[in-house]
């Protein structure tokens, strides 16, 4: 089955907000992201989750970049990477990979996190977490997971030429979901979401999103949907639609040339308002 993602569906399936609630009502995300050379990825994947309704976001990044991120976003909390395995069970959603880098430490950390997840936790894997998975000879199945590759990352994961991915996006997105037992979000124009059987094609977004940091924002939005109670497939469907719509709204003012990833973040509230209140 192939379906196009429409606003009516997204509106009907947005996580509900209730007045008698607190930050824990809307989930706790542990975002393992960032490195010395990619602090922006850590910031954008964290703040976009908060902007999309997550109640609590903890960022685990190198200590050396905490002050720079905290200075622009005091809402984010922090966790030393040496404490991750000790406290991981206190979070219901884990996101990992944005700007993480590939080295012995990040590779072991990614492996440890995947092996430690309990049945009640959900995980979003992006960027370098996917590149680390691609190093495995035997591909692991990862329960309760969403992967968000662009075509090059998917070509590494499946050991398939990128031209084949581009020419057969639906086929290889399904294969990825079947291989890893996950939801696959294959990014690009008309982003694809699939569980290996059913397939959904996004109807929002434009070339403005083809810019550094855009994927980090998407990871945060999807994580926020999971944190607030969406199931895996709906979190991915809602996430790509909101992300694309925020890019569309930003480009109306800034043009598709000049939108930055932070402009997409700034327009998440307008995208949500459009979904909730405009026909």
Structure description:
There is one protein chain. With about 280 residues, the chain is an alpha/beta fold. It has a single domain (about 1-15, about 25-275), classed as Ribokinase (UDP-N-acetylmuramoyl-L-alanine:D-glutamate ligase, 3-Layer(aba) Sandwich). It is built from 13 helices and 10 strands. The protein has helices spanning about 5-15, 40-50, 65-70, 85, 105-115, 130-135, 150-160, 160-165, 170-180, 215-225, 230-260, 260-265, 270-275, and strands spanning about 1-5, 30, 55-60, 75-80, 95, 120-125, 145, 185, 190-195, 200. The longest helix has 27 residues, at about 230-260. It is globular, with a radius of gyration of 17 Å.
